[in-house]
Design goal:
By secondary structure, this protein is an alpha+beta fold. The chain is built from eight helices and 22 strands. Among the domains are: about 90 residues, Zinc/RING finger domain, C3HC4 (zinc finger) (Herpes Virus-1); about 110 residues; about 170 residues, Jelly Rolls (Sandwich), CATH 2.60.120.
């Protein structure tokens, strides 16, 4: 039996998987023991049947049978360990730093088991026994050991703080209720404890709700960042493709220009080389005739000179070079024409880009209704407030809708000869005084002014005004606003072209679509779906 007791060491009865005493221990072929459930679950979650200790692999899953001997020894060890734990728990412990010591112990202070609110003292198990056995002490209120029991006493009356003054929101003793708190609303601590506990529970629930909201906000922000990353990646990819196409187009136009110039140069050079070769051949013939003439003139043979004179005296047949010349080639305008063709190519590419951009911003289209409050003069409003009648002056009108965040888009249809101002504005504080249009005054607009002799001009009052050179006269203008981005963009819808953009704006107030049609023509304001029309 003593030998068996020596074998009852903890490490011999612990499963290496769950690290607890064996339950239904089984032995596998390599000799190692495990709980039946532990080794079964281990093999179920792995592809191969392998010993967790020695890593030996079994081609066939071993059959598991409970080892009765080890099971009985493990049960004996478990019972012995429980008895040992029970006996050790009854032994009193020495008070450690931070723990409440017994106030009665002399010498070595033992750990207090309870504190008495009547005696205002803490007791270990030994010194607590009178409170458990004596009838007079049994009525004392015992609590878990706490420090600073003096803090539970009224400093004025040296009595236990067992009441709560709801009027002054403070703990009081019985004597306080007949003196300073005589007319106050006083309740037992336990009653107020339940009230405050309920309040704390409600506060905790609110805090948990706030935590949950913030966690959801974190998820929302992370989702927004993910979407932003995807948008950024897509925009970078689109940008790379566009600029690669632009680069290739420029390089192609440059190569075509150089090739055209070199072809003309080679043609001229080839022609010149042909002329030179022909001239050199004639010079060779002439030199040959000159040599023959010189030799004949020096001859003293009268008969030979006279016989050869007729054939050599006549000049050899040659080309008349008087009107033949190689003029330097003129390359004037070739670069300009190449740039113009490149510009046409770029215009087509830009049109495609702005068509895509316009479709994107039109997804944020909103319907616009005029507000009855206008600057001057006040025109007659129709019942649905979607019509501005003709007047004698230009009218400045705000929309009924206001925007404080996000993105929105609306379109305005002008007739060809209209004078107009269009954009967004802050709420006007003075509806009678004239105001200079500029972002500093709360206006982000584009204007068109018709002049005499069939001329007109477009400009953006950006402080100072920016003159706009437009290829076409826009009759349908789209306005897109990104409040957080600080962006206001104007589009020629029919031409799918950007007119102007205000960037880097700082919006803090409500923004209203702003319209200022003049009396020489009508104005239509509509969303792309034609749901909202003003005439």
């Amino acid at each position: 039996m003593s030998a068996a007791s020596c074998l009852l060491t903890e490490d011999r009865f612990l499963c290496s998987i769950c690290l607890d005493v064996f339950t239904d221990p089984v032995a596998i072929p390599c000799g190692h023991n495990f709980c039946k459930t532990c080794i079964t679950q281990h093999w179920d979650s792995n592809v191969r049947c392998q010993c967790p200790n020695c890593k030996k692999v079994f081609n066939t899953r071993p059959e598991l049978r409970v080892n009765t001997l080890i099971s009985e020894m493990a049960a004996q060890f478990r019972q012995s360990a429980q008895q040992k734990a029970s006996s050790s728990s009854s032994e009193q412990q020495v008070s450690k730093p931070g723990e409440v010591p017994c106030d009665v112990c002399t010498g070595t202070k033992l750990k207090a088991l309870k504190s008495c609110l009547v005696c205002l003292a803490s007791y270990c198990e030994t010194h607590l026994e009178p409170h458990m056995t004596r009838s007079g002490l049994k009525r004392h209120q015992l609590i878990d050991p706490v420090k600073n029991l003096e803090g539970r006493m009224c400093t004025k009356h040296d009595k236990l703080l067992e009441l709560f003054c709801k009027t002054d929101q403070m703990c009081v003793c019985m004597l306080c209720t007949v003196s300073d708190h005589k007319t106050h609303d006083v309740v037992p601590l336990t009653e107020e404890y339940e009230v405050k506990k309920a309040v704390l529970g409600k506060t905790e629930a609110e805090i948990q709700q706030m935590i949950q909201k913030r966690r959801l906000k974190i998820q929302e922000i992370k989702h927004s960042v993910e979407l932003s990353d995807k948008d950024a990646d897509r925009e970078i990819l689109d940008g790379v493709q566009v600029f690669t196409a632009l680069k290739e187009s420029v390089e192609r136009s440059q190569a075509e220009l150089i090739d055209t110039i070199k072809k003309k140069q080679r043609k001229t050079k080839k022609q010149a080389e042909g002329f030179i070769k022909e001239l050199e051949q004639e010079i060779s013939e002439l030199k040959k005739r000159s040599t023959e003439l010189e030799q004949l003139s020096q001859s003293e043979d009268h008969l030979h000179l006279l016989q050869s004179f007729s054939s050599l005296n006549a000049a050899p047949s040659t080309k008349n070079w008087t009107n033949i010349s190689i003029r330097p080639l003129k390359y004037d305008g070739m670069v300009a024409r190449a740039v113009y063709q490149l510009e046409e190519t770029l215009d087509k590419l830009m049109k495609k880009l702005f068509e895509a951009e316009l479709k994107r911003v039109q997804r944020y289209a909103v319907d616009v209704t005029l507000d009855p409050d206008i600057v001057h003069p006040k025109p007659t409003q129709s019942n649905d407030r979607q019509q501005v009648n003709q007047g004698t002056e230009c009218r400045c009108v705000l929309s009924k809708q206001a925007f404080t965040s996000g993105r929105f888009y609306f379109q305005v249809h002008f007739k060809k000869w209209s004078d107009w101002t269009l954009g967004v504005a802050r709420k006007l504080t003075n509806m009678k005084e004239e105001t200079i249009l500029s972002p500093s005054n709360g206006y982000w607009t584009v204007c068109h002014k018709w002049k005499m002799l069939g001329t007109s001009r477009y400009y953006a009052p950006a402080g100072p005004s920016v003159h706009l050179s437009l290829k076409t006269k826009p009759e349908k203008v789209g306005v897109f606003v990104d409040y957080e981005e600080g962006l206001v963009s104007f589009y020629d819808v029919d031409a799918a072209a950007l007119i102007y953009s205000f960037t880097g704006c700082s919006f803090t107030d409500k923004l209203y679509p702003f319209f200022s049609p003049c009396p020489n023509d009508g104005i239509k304001i509509h969303s792309p779906s034609e749901n909202c029309v003003l005439q």
